[in-house]
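Q: What residues go here?
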């Protein structure tokens, strides 16, 4: 039975492939394999756009919403064969996005804004 909506589609949970250990892939092979993985992950869902860069493709289409623990475990076997720059880009996306988008210490400007708000509240 197919359930409509982005997060559920198809007959049931599919098994995502694990890649055996082996020699490192080239950048092109890594991108092709990542796109293959994403196609399996997406299943019957319709995507807004296709981008050649699989990291940007996943980001633009909100595919990280589909990354369950099983998907992440399966994708780790892909990461083990990818070049370091690809691994870094994927790990950044899996962790929640570019470091500039992530939560972290306040910048000096944010600290000053916070102080101004606190001063205004006390006045």
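A:
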């Amino acid at each position: 039975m197919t359930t409509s909506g982005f997060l559920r589609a198809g007959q049931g949970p599919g098994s995502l492939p694990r890649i055996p250990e082996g020699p490192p892939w080239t950048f092109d092979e890594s991108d092709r394999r990542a796109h293959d993985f994403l196609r399996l992950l997406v299943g019957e869902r319709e995507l807004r756009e296709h981008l050649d860069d699989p990291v940007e493709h996943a980001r633009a289409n909100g595919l990280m919403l589909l990354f369950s623990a099983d998907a992440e475990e399966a994708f780790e076997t892909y990461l083990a064969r990818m070049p370091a720059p690809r691994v870094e880009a994927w790990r950044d996306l899996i962790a929640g996005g570019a470091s500039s988008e992530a939560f972290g210490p306040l910048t000096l400007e944010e600290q000053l804004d916070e102080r101004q708000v606190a001063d205004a509240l006390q006045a």
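A: Context that may help when evaluating the design: Residues 27-122 form one domain. Confidence is low (pLDDT under 50) at residues 1-12.
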